[in-house]
Amino acid sequence: MTLHTPPPSNSRETPSLQVAFHRTELAVILSLYGRMVAAGEWRDYGISCLREVAVFSVFRRTAENPLYRIEKRPKLRGKQGMYAVVGIDGQVLRRGHDLKMVLRVLERKLIRAVR
After folding, report:
1. Residues 6-30, mean pLDDT to the nearest whole number
2. Between 111 and 29, whose confidence is greater?
3. How far apart are CA 27 and CA 52, in angstroms?
4. How far is CA 110 from the centre of its chain?
5. pLDDT in tens, 81-101
6. Cys staple from 20: which of 49, 83, 87, 101, with CB 3.0 to 4.6 Å?
7. pLDDT reported for residue 1
8. 3-class SS letters over the chain
9. Among the listed residues 113, 114, 106, the one whose alpha carbon sits nearest the alpha carbon of residue 31
10. How many CB atoms lie within 10 A of CB 9?
């Protein structure tokens, strides 16, 4: 009986982990998204799960740049909060630890749209 060992690897192979939104987080985001679609403000969305950040992008039209990006960065959990809403110009509109509180900045825009 022969025992074969795998050849030594020169590079450190670590599985590429991705940051993603949890089901409860998506429920909160999609609830707001549905209300904004009903108000006629938003029309499309995209989700990106990257290595350090998960992004929910909101579009008025599909071919445009996103109006808002809802980002989740777990590395900022202990500092400023891992959730952020970023505007079209890249400015952070709100950052915090609680997703519902962070999304309130967008709900204010819904109140203006309904008037």
Report:
1. 75
2. 29
3. 21
4. 19
5. 889 999 888 889 999 999 999
6. 49
7. 47
8. CCCCCCCCCCCCCCCCCCCCCCHHHHHHHHHHHHHHHHCCCCCEEEEEECCCCEEEEEECCCCCCCCEEEEECHHHCCCCCCEEEECCCCCEEEEECCHHHHHHHHHHHHHHHHC
9. 106
10. 7
Amino acid at the residue 106: L
- 26-73 pLDDT tens trace: 999 999 999 888 888 888 889 888 898 999 999 987 667 888 999 998
Q: Are residues 57 and 46 in contact, defined by beta-carbon separation less than 8 angstroms?
A: yes
The label of the residue with tokens 């809403």 reads 85
11 has pLDDT over 80: no
The radius of gyration of the chain from alpha carbons, rounded to an integer in Å, stands at: 19
| Integer Cα distance of 85 and 104 in angstroms | 10
